[in-house]
Amino acid sequence: MSQITIDIQSYKDTYLKLKSAIEGLTEDQLKWKAAPDKWSVTEVLSHLTDHSIVFSFRIRKLISEEAAQLPPFQQDPWVSESKANEGAARDILDVFGILLTYNSLLFDRLPAEAWSKTGINFKGEAVTLLQSFQSFIKHVDTHLLQIERIKNAYQ
């Protein structure tokens, strides 16, 4: 098997990117919503933290179970029912950062072959740990663009 090079730093950097994206924003800016059915910056951060919790669980299923069933989650109810916009964006981001650190410590211990382990996502597709890892980073990048759109639309 060829050696796989994993850029753990790009995963860790998602926290710094998010922190930079909200730097200098007021509470009004963090909680502002373009419409009732749209997310605020705080809600985007909450969603990403929820996603990190689910990703943390998926990682552990992938490395420890054969043909692991990877759970989906309902992002909109998770954000709305947790009253995410009533939370403090910086506290939510801190939890995101702690989860990144915890998972990074695990990633540092994994042998190369663990990154090839597969599970089945909610669409019935086989995905590897490496694909899930890369998707997580892309997911954060997508929401960073959303945060910029929210900031630009703020009145």
Automatic annotation (TrEMBL):
Q: Which InterPro entries match?
A: DinB-like (IPR024775), DinB/YfiT-like (IPR034660)
Annotated DinB-like domain ranges read: 17-147
Q: Pfam family example for this protein? A: DinB_2
Q: Give the top-rank taxon of the lineage listed in the UniProt record for this protein.
A: Bacteria
| Name of the protein this chain belongs to | DinB-like domain-containing protein
Organism of derivation: Paenibacillus foliorum
